[in-house]
Amino acid sequence: MPRTSRAADLSPPATTPDAVFLGVRHHSPACARLVGRAIEELRPAYVLVEGPADMNDRLDELLLGHRLPVAVFSHYRDETRVATSWAPLCDYSPEWIALHQGRASGAEVRFIDLPSWHPAFAERADRRTNRYADAEARYAEATERLCAHFAVDSVDALWDGLFEITDPGDDLEARLDAYFELVRGDAEADAGDRAREEYMASWVRAATARAGERPVLVVTGGFHQPALRALSSRNDGRGDGDGDRDWPEIPTPPPGALGGSFLVPYSFRQLDAFAGYQSGMPSPGYYQQLWESGPQSAAQGLLRSVAERLRGRGIRASTADLIAARGLAQGLALMRGHAYEARVDVLDGLAGALISDDLDQPLPWTGRGTLGAGTHPVVVEMVAACAGESEGRLHPDTPLPPLVHDVAERLARLGLADPDGPVALDLTDPDGLTRSQVLHRLRVLDIPGFTRVCGPADGADPVFTERWEPGEAGGREAALIEAGAYGARLEEAASVVLGERAREAGTEAGPLAGLLFDAVLCGVGPLCDELLEALAGQVGQVPELGPLGEVLTAALGLWRHDRVFGVARGRLLGSVVADAADRVFWLAEGLHGGPGVDFARLRALAAARDALLHAPQLLSVTREAAAEAAARIGRDRRAPADLRGAAFGLRWVLGTPDDPGPAVQALASCAADALGDWLAGLFALAREEVTADATADTEPLIDVLDGVVSAMAEDDFLTGLPALRQAFAFFPPRERERIAERLLQRRGKQGSARSLLRTTADPLLLARARALEENVTRLLDRHGLGTVR
Question: How far is Cα 457 from Cα 553, in angstroms, rounded to an integer?
Fold first, then answer.
């Protein structure tokens, strides 16, 4: 580790009897150096570190010869909550220096914070949270004032100018104390921070009770240091330090819950704030150079890294440009009072020399957060160069969750561990189906390595083959370790993830439809049954008709036609069909709205029609009850015209047709496009009946419709023509040709119906052109300018 010499011994910045507190910023090289120097000079008996205390019995595992960065991945799951978090460690993390150098010095090292699954982290422990989310980001008022005072754009630039690129000197500890005292200020910590600080203080008190003549070094985030100093000085009746009985109790997950921690390989890309990382320093590649070589070498290295990356991607960066960038960076450093060129000086200099375009958004290093859409390509490459490309690797002796071994064994047994090329699977073959299920389970767990490029799209898709492309497997081990939180075996983990997705979806039918088919593709056996039972209850509460139709279509297709997955005529799948179909009729009858065709709700009515026709034994609603509901919808003038047409068509399909004449006449007298919307609904539900009716001896609907359209005024016809064309698009070409033949017969015309349908231009444009010609002719005649013969 690089060392900075000091003229005087370390003076503890904040103490209780026998305790030294170092407040740090996570992943700060300056703080890492300070921690290393403190351990060397104080020779503490104990080094206490902010980190999950449930990892204390596995510190030997953490201190194996890993290639950093690595992270402690923690997970928790019960019936109501899933929480995961990461505590990354890199070469210049103060926590890593405290653990590694503390152990090397002969000190006992301990993590002293609550486990990451603990309710104290509940506000921050969503599915992709970092444990070390900066307190200064949550209590930002003071840092905003500091940024304004020092005329810098971001807290990262502020920190660099105050601590990273300055000579540490003898007052670094005091300056850090002052900074964190100001950040904490008088702000009251939230309940989670208070619980954590009380728990960490209990570890400090226990350590000082047994430390003897040697001090205790406490390394935590700087925000917690003022509170820990006060809390740790309290006398709480500590024991005599005999053995481990006086150490605070480490919380365990409550009964029925699962929780724990594993080490996972990490990467600089994941560690970068511009990629969404929530804690510590951005641009880890730059800070790695700062840690290894100091600020001057880091600035020069960053300039080289950006130039190499730009040139490698074909973006012009001439020597003259780089000389200009270096000059700008040096000038900015002098103007800003920096002893050396800081990261933002180099980046601003590069931006000034290389970017001549107007930028639509601020440069990303002036703030925090991920890169926005439309970021200039040079800026994207600059940020990537700052991040670096280092990837961690776990020591071979690192314990891994059972899922990692289970997946490795399955892939090897099925010939999927290292395929030579694309994997083609026949789903009707038992071996092909087994391999498909394994790959789909990996897919729902987001495990990299395979991508499905073709296969059945839903339960009604008559496709029985799949094709998978092997891809980059980088990050597979880390993803499997993280997925190990869901189960020890692949089928268990996949089913738990699907169950979690079902809970997150709630009553959103769109995700439920995809979830249903994913469950079938994964083939997770009895666990799939539990999922289907839950889905059956959820679809009965879906609030929107269109998305509900997707669920019903998928479930009914599988229930009727499945020849591969073994779910045809299944009881639980039938329950999904039944609840979804009942819900469709309930929602449709209360739906009101204006003009326009909603194809999603028409598909929902069509799916309910199919359920009545092909699975009536599953439904609580009878054909008679459905026909009565359709009649009520058809009479409701507040219902959308397409839904009324669909209701008319449903009654026709169910054998209780109404006289179309009054309905068509009534619609034609309303808005010009209402007729087209009504017909779209009718054709969506009863297209075959309409086609058969077109050849009947009695007056069919087509004849009624032809009479109404022929009687329309020209302007009304032009207004309603787009909706009419949209409605007749439900018919395939052969059926449109039969309708055209009927219309020719009605007019006593001879000719080809097929040629009538094959116009050389859009019929709507032709109709509008004809109307325009007639208007022009009338205008010319009115002014006596008609065509002279």
Answer: 12
Looking up tokens 């820990």 gives: 228
CA dihedral 350, 352, 354, 355 (to 10 degrees): 130
pLDDT in tens, 441-462: 999 999 998 999 999 887 667 7
For the record, the structure tokens of 310 come out as: 């730009």
CA angle (368, 372, 376) in 5-degree steps: 105
* Residue whose pair of structure tokens reads 């990356």 in the numeric block: 309
Helix (H) or strand (E) holding 440: helix 430-444
Q: Where are the alpha helices (DSSP H) in 484-570?
A: 490-505, 509-522, 525-539, 545-561
Q: Is the dihedral of CA 513, 514, 515, 519 positive or negative?
A: positive
Cα separation of 441 and 192, whole Å? 36
What are the backbone angles phi and psi of residue 263, rounded to the nearest 5°?
A: -85, 140
Can you tell me the distance from the alpha carbon of 205 to that of 234, in angstroms, rounded to the nearest whole number?
Answer: 8
Per-residue pLDDT tens digits for 682-700: 999 988 888 777 555 555 7
775: number of Cβ within 10 Å: 11
Q: How much is the pLDDT for 557?
A: 86
Q: Residue 601 is which amino acid?
A: R
CB atoms closer than 10 angstroms to residue 370:
13
Do 62 and 255 touch, CB atoms closer than 8 A?
no
Rg (CA), the chain: 36
Does the CA dihedral 185-190-196-201 come out positive or negative? positive
**Maximum CA extent, the chain:** 123
Is the separation of the CB atoms in 432 and 464 below 8 Å?
no
For range 200-207, the mean pLDDT:
93
Residue length of the chain: 789
Measure the CA angle with vertex 93, ends 92 and 96; round to 5°: 105
Mean pLDDT for 565-594 is 86
Q: What b/e string do you get for 104-130 counting C-beta neighbours within 10 Å, with b at 16 or more? A: ebebbbbbbbbbbbbebbeebbeeebb
DSSP 11: P
The region of weakest confidence among 45-54, 124-133, 328-337 is 124-133
3-state secondary structure of 549: helix
Other beta carbons within 10 angstroms of residue 56's beta carbon come to 17
Residue 235 in this model has a pLDDT that exceeds 70: no
Structural contact between residues 101 and 36, judged by C-beta atoms closer than 8 angstroms: yes
**Unique residue bearing structure tokens 């054998």:** 655
Report d(CA 703, CA 701) in Å as an integer: 5
What pLDDT score does 265 carry?
92
Place of tokens 């503390």: 102
DSSP state of 105: T
Judged by phi (left if over 0) then psi (alpha if -120 to 50, else beta), residue 193 lies in: alpha
C-alpha span between 615 and 556 (Å, rounded): 8
Residues linked to residue 88 through DSSP beta bridges, in sequence order: 71
Of 604, 624, 469, 491, which is closest to residue 543 (Cα–Cα)? 604
Predicted pLDDT of residue 224: 87
Query: What is the average pLDDT value for the chain, to the nearest integer?
Result: 82
CA dihedral 224, 229, 232, 235 (to 10 degrees): -150
State how far the Cα of 533 lies from the Cα of 283, in Å rounded to an integer: 48
- CA 678 – CA 644 distance, rounded (Å): 6
Q: Is the pLDDT of residue 119 over 60?
A: yes
**Where do we find the tokens 């010095």?**
105
Cα 566 from chain centre: 31
